[in-house]
Design goal:
- The chain is α/β, with parallel strands linked by helices and 200 residues long.
- It has a single domain, classed as P-loop containing nucleotide triphosphate hydrolases (Rossmann fold), CATH 3.40.50.300.
- Helix content is 35%, strand content 22%.
- The chain is built from 6 helices and 7 strands; from the N terminus they run αββαββαβαβαβα.
- A 7-stranded mixed β-sheet has the order 1-3-4-2-5-6-7, sandwiched between helices.
- Helix 3 runs parallel beside helix 4.
- Bound molecules: guanosine-5'-diphosphate.
- Guanosine-5'-diphosphate (GDP) binds next to helix 2.
């Protein structure tokens, strides 16, 4: 199966606010997480070459798990962005608990793309999420997005620093340079995605 063809078949499935609202826990699920404004929606759209994910939004509307189907067994999940300054603590706690439950309980979860703005990598909640994922033995691949905002040498230096920081989590956590805008790093990201979807 061709990964690009599979991704081009993307269809919006449903939005969930509780784990019980998600599709039956079967098949393959790959999730996109990241701080708000890291470019998570742009990365999803670049992956699928479609404008499915919502790139202009208000915090309230994005507090949902958005489920997209690629075929009968494979799904992409757009998790709510985190790190909004304005979100009340009660709501924040709810989402933290939900994401923690999702990582621990979701059997079909095969891998996590964690989107970071390359100029602000590895913020507090990124690290918490990474630790939850590693505890559940779910692989995490970090996309250091917006690399077009830096020079090649600045990007490389950031990647080196991130690789050093994630070394204790090896081999579960990996990282690469990415730009949703310029499509830099897309073929490397596809190589990571294919086995998560059970594709050679
Ligand atoms: P989200 O909140 O994480 O879903 O982020 P969005 O995808 O909505 O992107 C937030 C902002 O960053 C938007 O203004 C995007 O145009 C911009 N953005 C996203 N990816 C890139 C990128 O690779 N390069 C640049 N220069 N800007 C980007």
């Amino acid at each position: 199966m061709n990964i690009e063809t599979l991704l081009s078949q993307i269809k919006f499935d449903l939005s969930a606010v509780k784990l019980e609202q998600l599709p039956f826990d079967d098949g393959y699920e790959v999730v996109f997480v990241g701080r708000s404004n890291s470019g998570k929606s742009s990365c999803l759209n670049t992956f699928t070459r479609k404008g499915m994910a919502n790139t202009s939004k208000t915090p309230g509307r994005t507090q949902q798990i958005n489920v997209f189907s690629l075929d009968e067994t494979r799904r992409l999940i757009d998790m709510p962005g985190y790190g909004y300054a304005k979100v009340p603590p009660r709501i924040k706690k709810h989402w933290e608990a939900l994401m923690d439950d999702y990582f621990r309980e979701r059997r079909c979860l095969r891998g996590i793309f964690m989107i970071m703005d390359i100029r602000h990598p590895l913020k507090d909640f990124d690290i918490i999420m990474m630790e939850w994922a590693v505890a559940s033995q779910i692989p995490v691949h970090i996309l250091l997005n917006k690399a077009d905002k830096l020079t090649f040498s600045e990007s490389s230096k950031t990647l080196l620093g991130v690789n050093k920081a994630i070394a204790p989590y090896a081999p579960h956590v990996t990282a690469q340079i990415f730009s949703a805008e310029k499509k830099t790093g897309l073929s490397v990201a596809y190589k990571v995605l294919k086995p998560w979807f059970g594709i050679n």
